[in-house]
Structures are given as C-alpha cells and as structure tokens.
Amino acid sequence: MLHFECDYTEGAHPAVIEKICSTNMEQTCGYANDRYCEDARSLIRQLVGIPDADVHFLVGGTQSNRTVISALLRPHQGVVAATTGHIAVHETGAVEASGHKVLTVHSADGKLKASDVKELVMAHYADADHEHCVQPGMVYVSFPTETGTLYSKKELEQLSGICCELGLPLFIDGARLGYGLMADGNDLTLPEIARMCDVFTIGGTKCGALFGEAVVFTGNALGRDFRYLIKQNGGMLAKGRLLGLQFLALLSDGIYFEISKRADRLAMKVRTALEAAGLELCSPCTTNQQFVYMPVPVLEKLEEKYVFSVAPCGREGWRLVRICTSWATTDDAVDALITDISACMEEKI
Amino acid sequence: MLHFECDYTEGAHPAVIEKICSTNMEQTCGYANDRYCEDARSLIRQLVGIPDADVHFLVGGTQSNRTVISALLRPHQGVVAATTGHIAVHETGAVEASGHKVLTVHSADGKLKASDVKELVMAHYADADHEHCVQPGMVYVSFPTETGTLYSKKELEQLSGICCELGLPLFIDGARLGYGLMADGNDLTLPEIARMCDVFTIGGTKCGALFGEAVVFTGNALGRDFRYLIKQNGGMLAKGRLLGLQFLALLSDGIYFEISKRADRLAMKVRTALEAAGLELCSPCTTNQQFVYMPVPVLEKLEEKYVFSVAPCGREGWRLVRICTSWATTDDAVDALITDISACMEEKI
Amino acid sequence: MLHFECDYTEGAHPAVIEKICSTNMEQTCGYANDRYCEDARSLIRQLVGIPDADVHFLVGGTQSNRTVISALLRPHQGVVAATTGHIAVHETGAVEASGHKVLTVHSADGKLKASDVKELVMAHYADADHEHCVQPGMVYVSFPTETGTLYSKKELEQLSGICCELGLPLFIDGARLGYGLMADGNDLTLPEIARMCDVFTIGGTKCGALFGEAVVFTGNALGRDFRYLIKQNGGMLAKGRLLGLQFLALLSDGIYFEISKRADRLAMKVRTALEAAGLELCSPCTTNQQFVYMPVPVLEKLEEKYVFSVAPCGREGWRLVRICTSWATTDDAVDALITDISACMEEKI
Amino acid sequence: MLHFECDYTEGAHPAVIEKICSTNMEQTCGYANDRYCEDARSLIRQLVGIPDADVHFLVGGTQSNRTVISALLRPHQGVVAATTGHIAVHETGAVEASGHKVLTVHSADGKLKASDVKELVMAHYADADHEHCVQPGMVYVSFPTETGTLYSKKELEQLSGICCELGLPLFIDGARLGYGLMADGNDLTLPEIARMCDVFTIGGTKCGALFGEAVVFTGNALGRDFRYLIKQNGGMLAKGRLLGLQFLALLSDGIYFEISKRADRLAMKVRTALEAAGLELCSPCTTNQQFVYMPVPVLEKLEEKYVFSVAPCGREGWRLVRICTSWATTDDAVDALITDISACMEEKI
Q: The Aromatic amino acid beta-eliminating lyase/threonine aldolase domain covers which part of the protein (chains A, B, C, D) (predicted)?
C-alpha cells in the first residue's frame, strides 16, 4: 500500500537522522538548555529576522497550541478561530481542558477574515450583558489552513492590523508552515509572517522531523515564564537537545524549505491529474494537501492500492478525500497514483 | 419606569419573605443539612414522584449547570446543547472553565431534536480519528428553552429515548420550569419530566424565590458525592436553610405553579396585543418570555416608560425585543404596556 | 439545644431582614448593577478610605476565594498560604479545581510570617530547576485566622512589605473581618488593612448577613474584568441587590462593628470561664472563636445541651472543641454555658 | 566535564537508534496504531503477565502522570502521594492544572506506608465536614522513589491491600522502573508489580530510550477512552511508531534490564567509594541515584571536572548532592570519579 493519508507516515529526513546519530553519545544538559537548542534558537531568530525573539521547542502540535493559548489568556477569555481550526475540531478539547472556549467563526475556505474578527469583538462589547459571555482574548489562525488554503500578504496584514487595533494577540499555527511558504502563489516570507503576529509555530513533525514544533514569540513579554507552562503541560522533553538538533538539521542548509517545495510540487501534480480526470477539487489549494470529491466506486478501486483520509461530504455516493504529499513522497508513488486516478475515472465513464 | 426586561427585577413572593422572617432567629445547622431542607427534599421527591430522588439546593443557575455538568462528564467529554443553550452563550464559559466543550447543534427554535443528537453521536464514532475529537458525554436542554419554546411530550420522549439508547445522561435546565409547566399547550407534567431525564433543576430565582435552584437527580448513582462538588464550585450556602425555606414556601401550597400560570397568562396578553398591533413574534411561545421584532422608532418611544431586553436582529432599523412577565408583574403594568404598544404602532402608521 | 458550633446558625440581623422586606417589591436591574449595590460600594470605599477601590459582591466565601485567586494567578502560579488556611483545607480543592496549587507554609498559630514567605520564594528561585516547580504568585492570609488569631499591625506591615518587595499580590480573607477588627488587643483599622493588601474581603455571612462577601480591590488593575470571573465562577447573583442591601444595612450605622464587638465580648466571657475551670485554651485568641482542649466525659456531658465543633487533637481521651459566638448569641445562652462548664469540670474532679 | 547530574544526558542505547534508523523510510499509520506499537504492546503484556493489559505509549513522565491521574479521578478527588513525590514537587503543578489536589503524606524515606494511607482516608471520613475537604481518590507511588529507595514486596503488598480495601486505585510511577527491578536487594518482579497496582508506567526516557513511557493499565476498565485523554493532554505522538520501536528495541532481548543492572552496579561502586571516603549517604539506596552530603569545598573541587545535581540541605557549609549513573555511564568515568572523590576528601583532611 502507498500512503497518502497524511504527511507523517515516514520517520525523518536523513539529515535529521544523521544529526541524531552522530551526537548520540555526547553528554549535554537536559530540558532544551543545551548548546544545540541554543544554536537552533539563534538560527531561528536570524531566519525570522527578530534578534530577540523568544524561541521554545515542544514535541507536538496540540501540545504547542494548548500551551501557547493557556499562556496568553486570562480565565474568562476565549480564542477566536475558524470553525475548521485545528483547535476547534481535532484536539479533543485541549483548549477547553485548559479552561477556555474556542470562539468559532464560520469560514468557507478555512481562513479567518479581519472583518469577521472585528464584527465578533464589536458584537461582544455591544451586548449589555457581555460579562455573561466569554471575552475574545486572542486570535488563532493556521498557515496553511486545515483545508490547505493560504492567507495572502494583504489578508494577513489586515488580520494583523485588526488584532493590533483590538488588542488581541495573533497566534499563527504553522504546523505545515514550510508547505505554506513554498507554495505556488504564496506572497509571504517567514520574516513577514513573524512580523505580523505575536506568536507562531514552525512545524517540524509534518515537514521532515521525527517530531518537534518551534514556538516563536515575536515580542518578549508574552512568552514570560513560558518554560513553566511547557513543563506543566507535559511538553518539556528531558532530552531536549533532540529538538534543537532536528531544527538545526532542517534549517541550517535550507532543507526545510527545499523538501516542502518539492512536496508542494508533487501535490500540484496530483491536483492537475485530478482536475484532468474531471474531479472537483474542494478548495483552491497550492500546498501539500489536496481535497477532492470522489465517487465511492472510484475511491474503493483506488483504496486497493492507496491509503487516503476519507470523510463524508454530504453528497450521496461521494466522499471528500484528502491526498497528502510530504518530504518523503517519491515521484514514482505520485506517478503511479496519477495513472491510477486517470484509469479509474475513465473506467467509470 | 416599568421593568419587563427579565423575570428577576423584584425580590421574592411574600410567602417566601414571610417564611424567612418567621424563622430568622431559629438555630439550625448549616450547609443545607437542616430540617427545612430535609422537608423541602421530601416534598420535591413527592412532587416529582420519585421516592429516592437525590435532591440538592444551590444558589444560582450558572452555578447549578457547571456543577451538574462537571459531576457527570469525564475530562475528554463534552455536553451536547443547542447553539442557543444558556451554557453555550451566557455563562462566560463556565462549562469550559470546568474543562469541557459545549458541542453545539444548530437549532432554529431553541430545541434539540432527538435526530440531531443521534446524528452528532453517530458522526463522532464514524470518524476514524474520533479520539482526536471531544466525545459527546451528556445532553443539555432547557425547559422552557432560552427562546421561550417548549418540548412536547412526544419530542421529549424521543430525546430521552435516544439519550438512553446512546448511554448519554440527559440534563434538563429548569431555570423557568414553572412557566413551562403552566404554559398553554404544554402537555408535560413534572413527574413526566423527571422520569424522562437523569437530572433536572427546578428554578427558584426566576419563579418567586429570592434565589435558589433545586437540582434533582432522578436516579441515585449520578449524584454520588455531589455535595463535594457543590462545595468545590462555591455553591454550598452556609445558611443553607434559606434554600429549603424558600422551596417549602413556594411548593407547599402550590404557589410556585399558581404564580407561574399567572405570569404566563399576562405574557400571552402582551403577545396578543403585539400581534394585534401587527408586529411579528419571533417564536410560537406560550411562556412568560415573548420575543418580538420592533422598529427602532416604536422601541424608542416605548423605552421612555418601559425597560426591555434588546438585541440586534440582522434587520436594518429593527430590533429583537424580549418582554418578560413574572410572578410580580401587575395587571396594571401589562395593561399600560398594551395600550402604549398599540398607540405607538398606530402613530407610526 | 443551644448552638455554639459556628457563627451561622441563625438568619440575619433584624436590620438586614428589615431592609430586604421593605424593598421587596421595588423593581431594579439585576446582577449587582442596581442603586443599592452602587450605594454599598460607595459606602465601602469611604469606610476603607480608598476613593477608587473596586468593590464587588459575591454570595459566599469559598466562591470569593476561588474567584479572586483565579483572577490573580497565571496558570503556572500557586498561592502561598498557611497549612491551616481555609483555601488549603476546607474548600474541597476549589483552588486546585481552578488549576492552581496552594503552596503551604507550616504555621503553629495560623499566621503566615513575612520571613517564611520570603524564604519560600527565595528557595524557589534558588532551585536551578525552578521551572519544574509551581511559581509563587500571590499570598493568602485570613484576618482573623482560621484558629482565631490576629495579625498585629507590625506583623501585617512586614508581610505586606515583603509581598510588595517580591511582587506578590496580598489577599486578605476577611470572612470574619468584623470579629477581628473589634477584638481586644487588635491594633489594626479597616483603612490600614485595606492599605496593606491588594485585595480583601469583608465577610457578611458570619457577621450578621444572610449571606454575602464584599471583595475589595484596593488598586484598580487587579480587579480588571472581575465581573466576567464572578459570572464564570457561578457567583453572579441575579437579584444582586440583595447583596448591596445587606451591606448597606450592616455598614450604614455601624451595626457590623457593634455586633462583632459584642460577639467578641461574649466569646471572651466563655474563654475566661474555660480558663477558670482549668481547661487549656489552644491559642491566644480574642475573637469570636475559642478553641479549647476538653476531656471526653466533660464534652459528652455538655453535648447534652450544647452543640460545638469537635475535632480529634492527638491526645487520647481529649478533643479539640471550637466554641463560637455570633451577632445572634444571647447573654443567657453564654451564662448557661459558663455555668455548665464550671459544673461539669467540678463534677469531674 | 563528565555528567552525573541525571540519567538523561546522552541520546539512546544503540539498539534503539538502530531500530529507528532501519525503519525510517517505512510507511505506517500514525498515533501509535502501527504494527510496531502493536508488537510492543503484546510484548509488554507478556512481560507483565497480564494478557489483556491495556498498554499505551506517551512521550514523557509528567505527561504520563497528569494524563493517568486525570483519567482516574473525579473533580472533587485528590491523589495521595509522599511529600517527596514527583507529582507533588517537580511537575509545575500539572496535577493541579488538571484540577486535582495532591494530598501529601510526610515520608522520611520517600515511601508511602500502608498505614499512613489508611490513616489519611479514615481521618477524611471521620470529619463531619468531609465534603468540605478533597476526597482521597487514588494513590501514587514511585518505584524506585524520588530518593532512590525501593518498596519491598511486603511493603507493596500491604499498600496494595489497603488501596484495594479502601477502593483507591494504586498508580506506580516507574520512570526508573528498570533501575528498581535490577537493584541489589529488590525482591519484586515485573509481574508482581503489575499484579499489585491498577496502573503503572515503564520508563523509557531514563532507561535507554530517546524518550517514551509505557502506561500499563492492569485491568481494563480504568483505561477506558484513555486515548482521548492522551490526545487532549498533548501526548499523542503523530509518528507514534517511534515509541513502539523504542520499547521493542529495549524489551525484546532484555536490553532494558541489562543496562539498568549495569547502571545500578556502577552507582553502588560510587556509593561504596563515598562511604569509604567518610561521606554520609542520605538514604539506603541501591538504585542508580545516590544522594550524599558533601562539604562545599569538596564539592567545588569536584565540580571542576564533574556535573552533579546539588541542593541545599539545611547544614551550613554542606550540600545534598545527587550522583546518577545510567545505561550510558562508562566504567572509566566512574573510576575517575571515585579516584577524585577519594583524593578530594583526603586533601581536605
């Protein structure tokens, strides 16, 4: 079986493995206080263009999200997110378990609009009984979004501006940041993203690492005492250097960006094939995830050889199928898939 | 100014006040372990027709809701509610502060449909990654709902049946239970409501008491150790007898039901006048809350003499206005309001 | 039976009852936004000598404590308290349920020493792995303490000074504040107490009210958005005016202080009798609670007519007995008790 | 510098590294649902002698502890632990952040006595106001303890018996389980430990893995829905196979036990040298951690070449020093240390 259901089916990019192996018997102190983590922090500060950014390393995405959000909110505050936001749907209520409501805004394309955030906040304070409602306390977006779409520079600037105007910290979940930055048509750079938000993550797990997310506070105040929170949330890795090592391996020579770009390219190849086969794509997506509506017979035929993520889609006889590429996807696998999609669709007709 | 904005603008029904005054200098033990609370518990068990119902007294509604919900759920579970449910909107995230997500279901009329609950639960378990989502752990409904509507016996039976089938405890928030039971067209009795759910509240605050909600567990197991939870949630009243006394005053001679019936009747008088004046009512509501769309000039004119609850309604130049009656509303006040509504509307035309 | 087990066995002082009765049919807005609450706030600001103090009214003590503490701490912080502190022992883990550890300091007399607080904080930061430990985030003391003792002006000044130096807000739980202020030998005034802390409570429940605690933030910033937190913690009373009315009744003409003084005097009368009978008092206490070691036979004899609070005390055949007076205790009851104590002790000998 | 401050200064045992490398490009599904995790679960079930044990893999110890504890307790319950217990001291209040109090029992040697647990629980229910106190809901012990000591079979049987009698689940934190099982004088086997508790962990991080703890529920019911809780607590590793692979590498051929035994032996070599040099050891410890009191000048001299964990010890001029060995400690390093300890102590004299 060839796996396309997500971007974490393999281990790590060889450079990551090599780094872990070559340093294995070295002795360092724990909890990400070692020199590799220090070097990785410096490198990230340089790449994002903020010399005093406060950089932390955690193991996973849900962990990072719940830790960042609980660090920023007071008890009566909630986090504004799109209804499709990862924190709203796929974290088993980790935000709520930390005591906070996710204030969702309906979004057709997975993106949060500046005007929607403003409207939600205005409506909150317009209510005479607003103290009976959860106070909007911060904004969460993903880049790319959970549906594979991207904010344009203009959209993110507007959102950032509104957040600033309303005094709401903006948190960008970059679990797939590499795939977003390297996508066709993306007009945002890493330093621009950093400049437009208060905290963001650089995802390792889905972009070449065994695991690991870098949390970057772009100003200094919001990250105060963040290490206490990492520990409390179970995210303080004893052998913390493993995180520093991996980010060094991926970021030092631009591997992170190269492999993301390649995965995006392969995903677009799949997309083109899906369109050519007459299938309807679900969103105008140029990143490594492609969402397509498939008739059940076609899907079942393909599932003899391939693994996808499949969800109901509200149409009888159809399914919403997610096809992911990653740093590890081979050209051969994609070519095979493309051929089979085309064949299955023709056969069907 | 005459107040119609809610059903808690006055103190308590005279019988309640009398009971508190006449017992004031008696000595009793605290924390609702006194004989008045014991008597009130017995009386409630008798009225609901469940000899071993587990009855507790708390001060307020949000307190009762958060305490009951946190008693019933495990950490990874959420409570299913209508989008308009009080716990979803007007409790400043008390449920989330206890660690749980409110799993909302869209509802046009404030009611949760049995089929919607079933669909939500089925969809949860159908998801291969359901462990990444909050598990539905119980169901919350209000009777009457927050929009003044009522479940019919058939609707509640279906909901109760589905909850039973799915193993989800059903919690009925009866903050305005009296107004629901005594409403025109209601076909449910108190014992029937008790029989169809696992826990419900009998609201005192809005139905004649100074404050107080009775929480009734209809089986014994779910309420285990509930007094610990009351204390932890800040709901253990030191002079707990005040709660027992009030429920005795209201329930002993049927005052609770009489005053609720009268308030419903007055609300229907207002409703009839609103309809006669050509205004559109928002829901087919026979309880003490009436929701009506009003043009701003009419509203402003009326607000010179009356206080209402006002919310935006999505129509330019219109507002959604809530008009409440209560045990304390006078016929004179209602007559004055009716006359003025009619006058304002005519003037406008 | 005559009750001496606590200070909340009766209802409320007649002035409180009168105020509630005389205003019963008035219409006011809810949630402590009415004019009575406004007046009570003004009066309290005047009495504590801080014109812009931020004053809130809650129903009970545990509720007030958990709400204040959760308002002041970030998630990784704990509250420093004596091992005997109410929040450490008798609130069913309400502080922990809000996510925070109570960092206890052993105390023989129920008081927290300035030096102990400093030592605890210094030790925390001296630990290289302090991020693995809960950060001290505020200090909680009770006045009077749970064992009936009082901070002297000098002691409270030192504690206040250390808290200020360490950047830790100081919270004084005044559930029995009246009894403390009016006790023999107390050298602190209400404005002094207010000036030496960041937030404190004026207890109503145990000092003449049916229920109610006033929470006073002496600066403005710490109480920001406190009403959201009151609501979330289930402490927002719908008919909030009941709280304002009670504090007005008690504080307008000094009743609060008079009745507290009288209760203290009666307690000292009991204390003198206990000492005269040869019993050992547990602490040098001049407030309304007296703690005495009693041989079991004496206790059992007295318990035929009186109710006390009884705890084991580590001595075979003895018990630790709490005897409380209150605003409602009569001279006759105290005289009877004194006579019987003396008789029981003589008989025993 | 040679590191002896903890047992996680290196990466992983070569067998672990080899396993990760050799499987790196394989495709598997995520979240520990892959075949390697399945195999590791089977192997663990076999080793612990419970065919239907419910086995889960998490990344770290604090994460495992908070997840297990929040899975077992209801909101009003606390976990009983020794004052020195890891959850009581070094997890930044993770248990409290999950809403629960740690009910500590003083312990001179890090161990919880059966009689102490019984006494605490009896005292709880003997209190008339026990509903105002946190209810003991489970018991937590570490094997070995945080001070390096071990429960004998008899001690653990007694503790297990009491827990069973009181209806309290017993949780054994085995972060250093290997070092405990292989220690001189230990009379407990892995199946015996499993049989005597409800849930325990097999620590990987400190015993040869890069990271990873296996959580073993010995009965089936308590672990129900545990995967939801893992996800919510941020412990669900996307590339979960990394955990299965590591436990397979360590447990398949007994490496876990061999390396633990060797580390224990080296620690005892250090202990013997410390004693020979006339230093006082802090506890009768036969595992890989040795705690010794050292005069500051000796410590400072040694710190020129070695890294230890150092804490104040209440004696002027002395420190409490922890010296750890691990699977990675070399004989050469230990020999050098021994020689230098002896030399420093002689020099001092």
A: 13-294
pLDDT of residue D349: 63
Q: D70 and B75: CB-CB below 8 Å?
A: yes
Closest CA to C142 of C101, C72, C90, C74: C90
- Span B277-316, pLDDT tens digits: 999 999 889 999 999 999 999 999 999 999 999 999 889 9
In contact, D93 and A232? CB cutoff 8 Å: yes
Nearest by CB to A89, which of B78, B93, B133? B133
Query: What is the pLDDT at residue D347?
Result: 83
DSSP E strand stretches across C193-334: 199-203, 213-217, 289-295, 306-307, 309-312, 318-324
At CA C85, angle to CA C79 and CA C87, rounded to 5? 60
pLDDT per residue, tens digit, chain A (349 aa), is 999 999 999 999 999 999 999 999 999 999 999 999 999 999 999 999 999 999 999 999 999 999 999 999 999 999 999 999 999 999 999 999 999 999 999 998 999 999 999 999 999 999 989 999 999 999 999 999 999 999 999 999 999 999 999 999 999 999 999 999 999 999 999 999 999 999 999 999 999 999 999 999 998 789 999 999 999 999 999 999 999 999 999 999 999 999 999 999 999 999 999 999 999 999 889 999 999 999 999 999 999 999 999 999 889 999 999 999 999 999 999 999 999 999 998 887 6
Dist CA A299 CA B87 (whole Å)? 41
Phi/psi zone of residue C236: left (φ > 0), alpha (ψ -120 to 50 degrees), beta?
A: beta
In chain B, residues with a C-beta closer than 8 Å to the C-beta of C211 are 237-239, 242
Q: What 3-state DSSP class applies to C53?
A: coil
- Report the 10 Å Cβ neighbour count for C237: 26
Which subunits have 3 or more CB–CB pairs within 8 Å of chain D? A, B, C
Share of chain C above pLDDT 90, in %: 95
Cβ distance of A131 and C71 shorter than 8 Å: no
Q: For D131, which residue in chain C has the nearest alpha carbon?
A: C92
Measure the CA–CA gap between C334 and D6, rounded to whole angstroms. Answer: 64
Question: Which partners does chain B have (≥3 C-beta pairs < 8 Å)?
Answer: A, C, D
The interface predicted TM-score of the complex, written ipTM, equals: 0.96
For every residue of chain A, which 3-state class applies, written as one string?
A: CEECCCCCCCCCCHHHHHHHHHCCCCCCCCCCCCHHHHHHHHHHHHHHCCCCCEEEEECCHHHHHHHHHHHHCCCCEEEEEECCCHHHHCCCCHHHHCCCCEEEECCCCCCCCHHHHHHHHHHHHHCCCHHHCCEEEEEEEECCCCCCCCCCHHHHHHHHHHHHHHCCCEEEECCCHHHHHCCCCCCCCHHHHHHHCCEEEEECCCCCCCCCEEEEECCCHHHCCHHHHHHHCCCCCCCCHHHHHHHHHHHCCCHHHHHHHHHHHHHHHHHHHHHHCCCEECCCCCCCEEEEEEEHHHHHHHCCCEECEEEECCCCCEEEEEEECCCCCCHHHHHHHHHHHHHHHHHHC
The answer to whether the CB atoms of A23 and D11 lie below 8 A apart is yes
Predicted confidence band of residue C186 (pLDDT cuts 50, 70, 90) = very high
Residue C168 tokens read as 């830790």
- Looking at residue C201, its amino acid is T
C215 pairs with which residues across the strands? C56, C201
